Amino acid sequence: MWWNALGKGLVPLVMGTTKELDLEKGKDFELIEAGEGTPGREVVLKEGGLPQVPFMIDGETKMYESGDIVEYLKKKFSK
């Protein structure tokens, strides 16, 4: 699983959920800079079609909206 985010990192809603689920950066997910001119921005455009963040890719699953990302994470990682 990996994430694309501008320099500010994940939006608070998503970051709070990663903490709630005890997900660890570098182990459970990666943050990748996706500001203008970065390789990450090119990935976001290629994979999702829009220069919008946050953007998540998990295998074949791709999504932009933080609420959708939170729902996905909760379904996948809730114990």
Describe the structure.
The protein has about 80 residues and is an alpha+beta fold. The chain is about 40% helix and about 20% strand. The chain is built from 3 helices and 4 strands. It has helices spanning about 10-20, 40-50, 65-75, and strands at about 1-5, 30-35, 55-60, 60-65. It has a 4-stranded mixed β-sheet with strand order 2-1-3-4, with helices on both faces. α1 packs parallel to α3 (about 65-75). The longest helix has 12 residues, at about 65-75. It is globular and about 35 Å long. The protein starts with a strand and ends with a helix. The model has no long low-confidence stretch (mean pLDDT about 85).
What is the strand and helix layout of this fold?
Elements: E1 2-5, H1 12-20, E2 31-33, H2 39-48, E3 55-58, E4 61-63, H3 66-77
Parallel strand pairs: 1-2
Antiparallel strand pairs: 1-3, 3-4
Quick recap:
The chain is an alpha+beta fold and 79 residues long. The protein contains three helices and four strands.
- The dominant shape is globular
Helix fraction bin: 25-40%
**Overall number of strands:** 4
Secondary-structure-based class equals: alpha+beta
Q: Please compute the radius of gyration using only Cα atoms.
A: 12 Å
The average pLDDT is 86
Provide the succession of SSEs: EHEHEEH
Strands of the largest sheet, in order across it? 2-1-3-4
Distance between the termini: 18 Å
| Approximate strand percentage | 15-25%
Determine the number of helices (DSSP H or I, runs of at least 4 residues): 3
User: Sheet bearing the most strands, described?
Assistant: 4 strands, mixed
User: Which parts are unreliable, with pLDDT below 50 for 5 consecutive residues or more?
Assistant: none
